[in-house]
User: Which sequence fits this backbone?
């Protein structure tokens, strides 16, 4: 090892920032488990035949080879580009051992061979929750999934993460509206509406006419629908007022109304209906979601997903699913990046440094450290025997709040190096204040 | 997604076994942090120029390509095959931001393109601890590293993992002994001794004579050294009794004596000196370690490592390191494999299922669930409205211990479905017994 190499798109954090990331991951994990989601860890690797099914995404796949392999692999492999495809494969492979509806979360890296940009990486951590049904999956899971994400963002907000807002729509609502209007090329309607923010209403109207077979009246109706947004189920009246009728439209409205009503009971304002949200990918069949951080909308959605009626299928069976995927690395890029929002009180777990004044005193220092650790206090022993002043500077540089001075003659003393206060201490009794035991995460503006 | 594909060498666990793996990882993490090691997460990917430096290992590297790339990559990448190489690169890249000696741990997957066997995988999780110095690294870290691993295995043993024993040797001791005997081709001496268990003493003697330039007397002396093992520092007398002298030999003995003495203070019997341990790879320069699970010696070492004086280096600087790597997946293969040692009390986090007797009662059930979750209790709401008996069977199949029956008229009741006991309960007050809140890990034989 003799050369350093920065690789664009492969973020790595310094230890003090990894503390923040771990805290984020712990809060997510805890929230998901409180809601009954079981942890699943999938392998990083899938056969290309599994990964490359959805035409739109296969450009971004990292393929695997072996340095000294000769010729082609019989079963070529690639790195997964999301956690949905491997989860679908995992469900098929283990269906006989799982209980349905199967609620699982996964927090793992994924890889995409695309060009890195702000908030877009080539290796990044996703935190996914999904509910997968056996043949059927009740609509109320489309309500549950974003409400779990609301809880997750609430927990992150206590940490100092900016406020998040989830926007939702429903594919059945869009499809029913299109069909009710007499537009049967639903995919083209969705693709056109999906571009509203990028190209504006005039161009979307043109697209609807050119690609979806709409006349001007139909196109205008689509645009009116796409402009509807509301923080309550009142959006339904605006849709109905457009005068379009279709059974699917009613189903979509009902599910979205249930979502808004439940969300407003749990956390008023956290979820909004926004009928221009279409999500480009083809496979969604019910509610779709995106999530934006207030003040960081330019980052794009930090948690997206939806319902897909054929998440996994065999010749005999179909497994519908609904889920959302939170982009942990994208979030982290705003928490610890250029305009850092969070900081850790220190970059080491250590709360106490046991000083070593002479190398032959190390066994006594080790004993004190062992006694403190047994009581759950993270401790380090000074790496080199030195004067007290140097030991304190060693602790200061690392943000370790306490230095322990052993003394066989006069008894140990421990110093809070922030205040200078020094007290007698017994390693079987003394403990730092609760808030100093582990590093804490603080808002930069609250420091 | 329409096809399942088992991939040999890429282990995945069912949810109830992932609970065991997570418990193992939590205990490792906690032990490492109590000892002052900071978490570092490295990217999965390195330039091949970084990975392929050590000739011995490059056959096993998975290389990366892109599905639609044309021609050769300018900077070809591969997946890391261990956590040491990326950590060395991380240290060089971030040296200006790190405090030395830098104590870090990493718990991450690594990939090797080798043939899968019992306990050998192509994707597996390693848990590494290392201390890395700036130019210098005191010998006492060679004592600290295995003692941290002893603590980790002690913590795992409380979970039900079989007892572990660490065996240690010292490269300086071996090198000093060889040089003291007049054998200067130290690498060949080490390689021969390393084969003792595989090929037996006669063949090692032949190898020493053929490859290391030893005469029969020198070869016999090497074999006598290799046979020495002891649970205390008394091994030193046996070495000295062989009558070989060299300054390096003395240094090696002193470090190994310090390790045995410290280990016996903390945990008598956990570390043994075994002078045949050489570790094949070239770069170790001080203590070397291997770890075996009692009763599972055939699995090979589950935690290995050593000291390397040039872990990382630039033209101007050298960073010595000492570390050990614990094979989490290898360990897991014995904990949950054919002769399963551990089991989880359930495969879901859920402690309480809130029953739903009619679909229009779901909002009330959701409210109860929210109240319980706010108090840290993992709760699921029944996915479909059904009779009480079916709700209980739903919970039973998942191992959920409690079912909550809401009733607006008579007040809620909660049933422990293991005992049948049913009591009135208020979602703002009732809690399950502490031991039922989260799934526990049990020994199979203690069930």
Assistant:
């Amino acid at each position: 090892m003799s050369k350093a190499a920065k690789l664009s798109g492969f973020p790595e954090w310094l230890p003090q920032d990894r503390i923040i990331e771990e805290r984020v991951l712990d809060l997510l994990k805890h929230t998901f488990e409180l809601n009954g989601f079981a942890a699943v860890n999938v392998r990083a690797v899938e056969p290309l035949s599994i990964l490359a099914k959805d035409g739109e995404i296969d450009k971004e796949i990292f393929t695997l080879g072996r340095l000294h392999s000769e010729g082609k692999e019989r079963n070529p492999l690639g790195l997964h580009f999301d956690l949905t495809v491997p989860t679908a494969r995992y469900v098929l492979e283990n269906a006989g051992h799982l209980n349905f509806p199967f609620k699982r979360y996964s927090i793992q890296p994924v890889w995409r061979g695309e060009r890195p940009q702000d908030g877009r990486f080539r290796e990044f951590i996703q935190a996914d929750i999904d509910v997968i049904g056996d043949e059927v999956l009740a609509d109320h899971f489309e309500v549950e999934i974003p409400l779990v994400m609301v809880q997750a963002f609430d927990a992150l907000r206590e940490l100092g993460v900016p406020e998040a807002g989830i926007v939702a729509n429903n594919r059945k609502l869009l499809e029913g509206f299109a069909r009710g209007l007499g537009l049967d090329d639903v995919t083209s309607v969705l693709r056109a509406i999906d571009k509203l923010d990028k190209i504006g209403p005039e161009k979307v109207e043109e697209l609807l006419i050119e690609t979806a077979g709409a006349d001007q009246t139909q196109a205008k109706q689509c645009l009116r629908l796409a402009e509807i947004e509301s923080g309550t189920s009142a959006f339904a009246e605006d849709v109905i007022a457009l005068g379009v009728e279709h059974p699917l439209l009613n189903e979509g409205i009902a599910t979205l109304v249930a979502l808004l009503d439940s969300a407003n009971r749990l956390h008023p304002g956290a979820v909004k209906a926004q009928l221009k949200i279409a999500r480009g990918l083809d496979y969604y069949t019910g509610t779709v979601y995106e999530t934006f951080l207030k003040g960081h909308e330019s980052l794009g959605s930090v948690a997206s997903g939806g319902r897909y009626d054929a998440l996994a299928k065999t010749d005999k069976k179909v497994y519908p699913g609904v889920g959302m995927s939170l982009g942990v690395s994208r979030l982290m890029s705003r928490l610890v990046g250029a305009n850092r929002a969070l900081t850790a009180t220190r970059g080491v777990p250590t709360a106490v440094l046991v000083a070593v004044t002479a190398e032959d005193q190390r066994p006594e220092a080790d004993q004190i450290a062992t006694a403190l650790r047994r009581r759950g206090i993270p401790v380090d022993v000074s790496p080199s025997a030195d004067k007290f002043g140097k030991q304190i500077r060693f602790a200061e540089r690392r943000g370790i709040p306490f230095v322990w001075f052993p003394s066989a003659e006069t008894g140990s003393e421990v110093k809070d190096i922030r205040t200078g206060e020094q007290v007698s201490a017994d390693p079987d009794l003394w403990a730092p204040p609760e808030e100093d035991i582990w590093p804490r995460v603080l808002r930069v503006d609250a420091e």
